Amino acid sequence: MTQHHTILMTPGDGIGPEVMEEVRKIIAHLNQKNATNIDLIDRPIGGAGIDRDGVPVTPETIEIGKKADCVLLGAVGGPKWADIDYALRPEAGLLKIRKDMELFANLRPAIVFDALIEASTIKPDVIRGLDILIVRELTGGVYFGEPRGITPLPNGERQGLNTQIYTTSEIVRVAKVAFELAQKRNKKLCSCEKANVMESGKLWREEVEKLGADYPDIALSHMYADNCAMQLLRNPRQFDVIVTDNLFGDILSDEAAMLTGSLGMLPSASLGARDAEGHQNALYEPVHGSAPDIAGTGKANPLAAILSFAMALRFSLDGPQLADALEEAVRQVLNQKIRTADIMDRECELVSTSQMGDAVIKELAKV
Predict the structure, then answer these.
(1) Which of 5, 32, 127, 240 has the smallest number of Cβ neighbours within 10 A?
(2) 0.85 exceeded by the pTM?
(3) Going by C-beta distance under 8 Å and a sequence separation of 6 or more, which residues neighbour residue 31?
């Protein structure tokens, strides 16, 4: 009998509901084939949450997320909510659910599909075969450090303050995730920080180096984050797994994403620790934003959301073979030169958001 799973679905804003609709269709297809037994619980987040509940995410939604097998999120934000207080903006809801669910490890794969190699602005011989996984610490560092704020100074100027802070335990737990993922890949891990000018970076390097003794099979290297940014453009295939802090991870993962040609192709996972019963909080979302300028036009690329669901199958829903099948279905659709507008190339077939989802289901049905 297929194991029962519950997913909290938070479509969010802009194109979020559109791309998540294609994930719904895939889940319905898998349920119908008895390949999965998944129930979906829908709740708003971001601007949709503000409009309905007055806040970007409610405590009740977060509690549902903690009890579910995982959360699937579309995207948040848009100009409609741009003038709202920072603490209540749509993005604050995303930060809160990550923090409250203790999702400390963000996994950002950057994979170049052969069929899309010309979509990148980087020369094909530099990125062909690229497969990088960036592990970003997600609940510490400068985005959450205290004190923070904007304060007036006696001379009439204003001062903006953010605090970069990490503890040993925060560093070690995310580094363990990276080491364990590297063991399942090519056994190479590069740790990135700014140990030359930041004490938090010095601590980061020391703790990762110390932990590396527990993983003698992993080739561990260290690199300053600015050099890593350069090397991602110069020779990205030197990397397998990269582990880094919240701020540098935000920047480096977006840079790595663009090596692939389109943010519309890239999934992500945010994972917490496993409890005594083996449950692990997890949230999966496409890397792209809410793209309000194309919301409702059918132009959005759903493949990042679909591949995020594939990551959920792999890490949270006990379905690694289904994850493989779904990823292969996406690959075959691309090989057939089926494209949404963001990855459109000459001699390809332009399709809508819904048509792209249908094409993936058609290939998935062959497995």
Answers:
(1) 32
(2) yes
(3) 37, 38
DSSP single-letter state for residue 2: P
Place of tokens 């009998």: 1
State yes or no: is 86 an active-site residue.
Answer: no
As a whole number of angstroms, the distance between CA 303 and CA 1 comes to 29
Q: Which of 13, 69, 166, 194 is catalytic?
A: 194
- Catalytic: 254? yes
Active-site residue, from 250, 318, 324, 358 = 250
Catalytic site includes residue 250 = yes
- Residue 286 is inside which H or E element, if any? strand 280-286
The H or E element spanning position 30 is: helix 16-32
Catalytic, 214? Answer: no
Interhelix angle 320-335/353-364, rounded to 10 degrees, is 120
Active-site annotation holds for 33: no
Q: Which residues contact 185 (CB under 8 A, 6 or more apart)?
A: 133, 240, 241
**pLDDT tens per residue across span 57-81:** 999 999 999 999 999 999 999 999 9
